[in-house]
Amino acid sequence: MKIMKAYNCIVVLNKDKSEALFCIRKKDPYKGRYNFVGGKVEPGEESEAAAYRELEEETGLTRRQIRLYRLMDIRYYQQEFILEIYVGILEEDAELHEENNPLIWLPLTEDFTDKDRFAGEQNIAHIINVALQYPIPNRNYIQDGFYIGVDGCRNGWVAAVLDYGNLRLERYESIDALIHRYPDFNAFLIDMAIGLRDHAGQIRPDQAAREELGRKASSVFPVPSRSAVYAETEEEQKKENKRILGKSLAKQSLAIIPKIKELDLFLVSHPEYQGRILERHPELSFTRMKGSEVICRKKEYAGFTEREWILSEYLGRKSLSYFYDEAKTLQCKPDDMMDAVCLAVTGALYAHGLCETIPLDPERDAHGLEMKMTIPKKNHK
Asked: What is the DSSP string of 334-370?
């Protein structure tokens, strides 16, 4: 079966739905007539991504200023193409940036059936009428901000970026590189210890997390003391931890020391990010999101699909192949990516007051870093 070409048209309405945005075409077809903005969907490009790309290229408007919804498709069998129609309401006053065609706002009292003024063989009138009847939903809390979730991966960090509802998975060699790329955000959660103990009397959130996780308690690795983190060799790290906290270190804790140290150095040298980059444990977030214990291991098929199902309540369904394909591209483990996405969703919950911390009244370490985990509230749904 022949694959049809796809194009899009984007109906942009002003805030009170009294005007629509048009361009004046400078080329045929329909040279000199009004038309919606839009363009071609490139081969392999997702439909929604193409709509946002064309909108930004032709007007300068981004998904931060408008949320697009797919309204309808018009299939032209003889011409062998599909026209995908999107609609959205501009949520704030914005300066337009014209690409090739001049832009103009027209009142919805216009006669859109006038073929001498409007393109589309009178389709514009039909599209406008349907768009005005379409109950355009408000953004939800996943779609109204910029949220970052980060997990450690081999030779770097994997970041799940929720950019006003658009999910991207990216990899960075360092926290510095990630923050350089995204210095501003609404929430930033990371699966790595923040705040290190200098003596055994200080309280970190690890024990409270283990108690809530029950059978999954072992997923919370013991966090080394500060002096152990900054020791040079593994033997010195074990000795320092035993001297300070009374216990040696298992290989899981030793393995994450370089990343604990990297994050600690960053926060100590960048105090403006203290309290903005927050620690969180993915298994505890999955448990709170589900409302009960997540039993199967995430490295197992059953456990991976269960976590994907939990996230689908917030993001819509993402196929398992999505995580595996992205993992292959970025050379990270699929479960690291799954955890990063969970962190980004938790960030959206946090930004809307739907999270709490353990402990409720956290202590600070010697550098003023709060020792706490940020997790969804039990009744956040």
From this structure: HHHHHHHHHHHHHHHHHHTT-EEEESSS--B-TTS-B
Residues 6+ apart with CB under 8 A from 43: none
Helix ranges (H only) for 142-202 are 175-181
pLDDT of residue 1: 55
Between CA 53 and CA 61, with CA 56 as vertex, the angle to 5 degrees is 135
For residue 321, tell me if it sits in a domain.
yes
For 188, list phi and psi in degrees, rounded to 5: -140, 110
Domain range for residue 268? 146-376
Q: What kind and span of H or E run contains 313?
A: helix 301-315
Beta bridge partners of 365: none
Would you say 280 and 343 are in contact if contact means Cβ atoms under 8 Å apart?
Answer: yes
**Secondary structure of residue 197 in the 3-state scheme:** coil
The β-bridge relationship of strands 156-163 and 166-172 is antiparallel
Residues 344 and 301 in one domain: yes
Query: What is the spatial distance between Cα 362 and Cα 283, in angstroms, rounded to a whole number?
Result: 20
Amino acid, single-letter form, for residue 208: A
Alpha carbons 167 and 79: distance in angstroms, whole number = 34
**Gap between the Cα atoms of 277 and 271, Å rounded:** 10
Instruction: Tell whether 173 and 239 lie within a shared domain.
Output: yes
Decide if 139 is inside a domain. Answer: no
Q: State which residues of the chain have pLDDT below 50.
A: none
Nearest 5°: the CA angle 325, 327, 333 is 140
pTM of the model: 0.87
Q: How far is CA 300 from CA 248, 305, 334, 340, in A?
A: 30, 9, 11, 18
Q: How would you label 295-308 residue by residue, b for 16+ Cβ within 10 Å and e otherwise?
A: eeebeeeebbebbb
